[in-house]
Amino acid sequence: MRMAAEQGHTQSQCYLGLFYDEGLGVPQDYKEAFKWYKMAADQGNADAKFYLGFLYDDGLGVPQDYTEAMKWYLLAAEQNHAQAQYNIGVLYNDGRGVEKDYKEAVKWFRLAAEQGHVDAQQNLKLLMEEGNHSSRSFKLRKSKKVRLR
Question: At 7, phi and psi to the nearest 5?
Answer without folding.
Answer: -90, 5
